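OP here, attaching both records as promised.
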Amino acid sequence: MSEKFPMTPSGFAQMKAHLKRLKDVDRPANSRAIEIARGHGDLSENADYSAAKEEQGLIEAKIRELEAKSLMAEVIDPTKLSGTRVSFGATVTIEDTDSGDVQTLVIVGEHEADIKRGRIAIQAPVARAMIGKEVGDTVNLPGKSGKGTREIEIKKVEWVEVPSLEELP
């Protein structure tokens, strides 16, 4: 059985929009660039042609990758989930037990992750350490820069809509 890629509805929509842009905008623009470069004569010494052909390969590879991922996507809507255990789609508020720093993280699919915006991939060590834990549980995580460990406490687990990256500040 092939591997499923968990993702939120907004992450799936974002991926489909990226795929549409590649097919409807980037691919035709690249084809025009190839045609223009062909018109410049000798293809063996034509840097524009070589660059356009290389870009074509990258676009086609990305289209194939996104098409495959969309077929294997397992779209999970966090608003339809509930409970106090951490799992995919959860918005988790944690507190560092030493420093008292509070942080909110959303556990999302790999392609939706953006640590600067508090979105961590389900495959990330922090997410894996929190999966299955409940409000009030403590989790030991590797310290920053790999030095020692740090302890966090799970303060809140919420099941809210995950905005797309474009909607975030």
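Record two, same layout:
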Amino acid sequence: MELDNKASDSAKSVKLLILDVDGVLTDGGLYFDDNGGEFKRFNALDGHGIKMLRESGVEVAIISARHAKCVAHRMDGLGVKHCYQGQSNKVIAFEELLTKLDLAPNQVAYVGDDVIDLPVMSKVALPIAVANAHPYVKEHSVLTTLNTGGNGAVREVCDFLLTAQNKYDDLMDSYLL
């Protein structure tokens, strides 16, 4: 991820990271069995990044246009309490999150990959696109990850936020004890 001072300064005050699901936490593929059951592949590195971010005091939420039981299951396993699925208008969920957590838009980062994410991305301090995002989304982002969605992009963002908030080194050192 190419960093600049504006992104690092914005990241210092982030108290909430909002993630899209398809194309960000997953590779964007939609997998169905013969009975219509949906499957998604999540990255373990992304999951541990989310756990470390939460443990450092940054809330994590998802806002997804689609609804899938496997997403609820994965987020439950990661301790993510703020899960908004089936949100065709993601701004409604975003505004609800701000009220619920008593936060301002300048305390929020959002990671997206497609144009449906732009209405929220345009409102937050730190809009981030994954490497495989639509070009228009990248154009309207402050940062673009080096990794693609579902392949470590979220971990990259988590590590960036932890580093900007001077929490990364202590967290990493704790694994060497």
